[in-house]
Amino acid sequence: MVNQKIKKVADTPIWKLAIRFMFSFAFILIIVFTAAELFKNGNLNAISESFEDGSWIQFVLIRITVIIGYGFVMAFLTKSKAKNKI
Fold this sequence. Notes:
Layout: H1 2-11, H2 14-41, H3 45-53, H4 55-85
């Protein structure tokens, strides 16, 4: 049973594994970083201000870059580990 799961992971394309890791990490990242930004700014007015001045774009792009990077690194490491166990 365990060997079948490892083989399935080893045979799965890296982009599919990366997407799985991206979704789970994005959920956690959104919660943590949004809470951190709210605590740093001290109020909810900063959110509406960031939409007005366009600073939200840089905020979102940095998070998307981190999420994509994390997804592919974890997919590569998971796939490598699975191939070594076969």
